[in-house]
Amino acid sequence: MADAATGGHDGRVGRHWEETREVWRDVRELAREAFTRPEPAHYPYIRCDRCGRVGPHMSIARSGSFRVTEHGIAGVTTPPETVCPLCRHAQPRTVGDELPGTVEVTCAFRWGLRLGWRRCATAYTVPADAALIVCPVCGTVVPGPAAE
Ligand SMILES: [Zn+2]
Ligand SMILES: [Zn+2]
Question: Domain-by-domain residue ranges, the chain?
Answer without folding.
Answer: 1-35, 36-143
